[in-house]
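User: Second chain of the day. Same drill as before.
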Amino acid sequence: MGLLAAAASAFAPASAPALGTWSSGPSLISGREFHTATLFTRTRALVAGGLRPAGPTARSEIFDEGTRRWSPAAPLSTPRLAHTATLLLPSGRVLVTGGGSFTATSRAGYLSSTELYDPGADRWLSGGRMLTPRANHTATLLRNGRVLVTGGLNSVGRGVAAAEIYDPNSNSWAPAGRMAESRFHHTATLLPGGRVIVTGGEQLSGGGGRVPLAGAELYDPATNSWSRAPRMAVRRDNHTATLMPGGRVLVAGGGSRTRGFVRSSEVYDPSSNRWSSAGRMREPRGFHAMTLLPDRRVLALGGFNDCGALSGAELYSPATGRWSRTRSLRRPRAHASATAFPSGQVLVAGGSTFDGLILRSGELLNPGRSDRTGPQLCRLTMRPQRLRAARSGPSTGRGATVRYRVNERGSVRFGVRRLVPGRVGGGRCRAARGRVPRNLRCVRSLRVRGSFRVRSRTGRNRFRFSGRLGGRTLSPGNYRLLARPFDRRRNAGETVDVTIRIRR
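Assistant: Same format as last time:
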């Protein structure tokens, strides 16, 4: 039996459960991002390394699906982040390669060291040193049991073009040629025939900027050589690639904060050596996680988009070739790990928010009834934020311009709440009478009757707000303009607000 067949047999699902709901899972012992998570038995996953607030960590821990608990594992010999972890078959050991060892006080640089985790002994062994130090690279288990490491970033040049092979029998490294393009933040996927396709990524320009790539390349283990593959339709980095049943590869999303993120996805068919469109995701995302579910659908979750960190999740169906929204995570997160168990549960662990808060929390997807969530609205502004009151008609002749972005076509319901001074009492903000001491002051938010809806398209929207609500002109004072988005199926998203002032 070949390695791929053995892996499929070892982790084959008992059934194909329907997607269900997210629940708060047990928190990691140590919060982290840029870590690895590796399923090494049917019910146990190893999380290793990553970035903590104090810097790279060597801590490791194991999640047991049966007990739903985390337990400490032996620490890595070297703290590292942006490394790789690969389950070796048939030994069951986990190979960790490279990464960065940067800390707040020291820039030791990129690592060439590798380590092997032995689950039976709960210890780490040396896996030798790679020929090239690297981080943000890929590691792919080949059909012959060896591991192909490609690309990455180090302190020399625009990125790494060199590739190398790890042989577990000799615990040694050997060259695997050079790719046509240096790249990091790319993907590498083992194809059914034994070749590996590498897609996208980015490289450093001469001026220090980052250039996303559309190029793809194929590695053939039989000849230890590289060849060009057709280019993708879209340049992408920080994306994901998933091998689907039938041997096709789904590539989705990508982008960065400076350039923005993309919604497109495409499929590579190795039998025809061609790319084809796989439609648009419901929202753009990069730095997300994607995993193949037991029912053969692909789940994409979290990541960043132009609005910030995402809690949204969506499904791609190879049968229909379409994306559909499903129940969101309980907390927005990017740089998280997602591990699919044969039972149908999915464990999401760690990650960070858009402002850099590193998360310790975890979540579990429990098989059951599927659900849908609403769209996301962001960048709500109103200019000017001060309107002059009028005895009748609009508060200003031309009104104010309200701008916002939504990730899905539908409508936005707007309402208003008046902000008035209050007094803290009994743990609540109550109506204020007379003079209130500074330490007891608070602000009450009172609902103003009336609301209105505005049709919205995907992306940027704007309209004129006159300062009138429900046929009445708002009186002088401070207000909060509330916006809640709805998609065409009336699924509601989170409410966003902006403060406005009506003056005399």
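Residues 13 and 342 are 5 Å apart (CA to CA).

User: Great, on to the next one.
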